[in-house]
């Protein structure tokens, strides 16, 4: 968590900084950018709230990759997770798009696209295979479990 959350906040900071440095480059009417940004903010905010409320920060930071107690827990199906099994990747990253649209920054929009695409690459190439192994072998000895050392 010490590394995960600062990098997550850095994504927001980078997007805001880029948006501020190149505002108005999309050329949309101001009302359209604000409306679209608010439209995307709703599912993003709901997902962030759902993550805090139903998922937990330790699990969101990857705790289920390292702590065996999560492997036998059921999937979260409340809040935003009712609409997507991977609501954090699907909806929460829309906040980056919202920032870009509010400021109408083409550069920030490109960064939001890259970051959203990159997180899905990470999911499919790193997380999904690991979670499949972890949750399919919950009754077997864990490959890597730091619970014993904490």
Overview of the molecule:
By secondary structure, the protein is mainly α. The chain has one domain. 67% of the residues lie in helices and 0% in strands. It has six helices and no strands. The chain has helices at 4-21, 30-55, 57-66, 87-92, 94-103, 106-136. Helix 1 (4-21) packs parallel to helix 5 (94-103), helix 2 runs antiparallel to helix 5 and helix 5 packs antiparallel against helix 6 (106-136). The longest helix is centred in the last third of the chain and has 31 residues, at 106-136. The two termini are 14 Å apart. Mean pLDDT is 84; it is low at 144-150.
Broad structural category: mainly alpha
The biggest sheet amounts to: none
Number of helices: 6
The low-confidence parts are 144-150
Domain tally: 1
Radius of gyration using CA atoms only: 18 Å
Measure the end-to-end span. 14 Å
Query: Helix fraction?
Result: 55-70%
Give a nutshell description of this structure.
The protein is about 65% helix and about 0% strand.
Considering the chains and any ligands shown, give keywords for the structure.
single chain; 150 residues; mainly alpha; 6 helices; disordered C terminus
């Amino acid at each position: 968590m010490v590394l995960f959350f600062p990098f997550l906040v850095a994504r927001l900071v980078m997007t805001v900084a880029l948006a501020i440095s190149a505002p108005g480059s999309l050329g949309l009417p101001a009302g359209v950018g604000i409306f679209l940004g608010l439209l995307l903010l709703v599912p993003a905010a709901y997902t962030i709230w759902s993550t805090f409320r139903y998922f937990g920060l330790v699990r969101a930071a990857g705790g289920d990759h390292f702590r065996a107690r999560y492997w036998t827990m059921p999937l979260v199906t409340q809040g935003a997770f009712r609409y997507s099994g991977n609501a954090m990747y699907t909806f929460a990253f829309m906040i980056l798009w919202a920032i870009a649209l509010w400021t109408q920054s083409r550069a920030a929009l490109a960064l939001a696209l890259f970051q959203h695409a990159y997180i899905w690459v990470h999911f499919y190439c790193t997380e999904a295979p690991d979670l499949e192994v972890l949750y399919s072998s919950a009754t077997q000895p864990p490959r890597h479990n730091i619970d014993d050392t904490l």
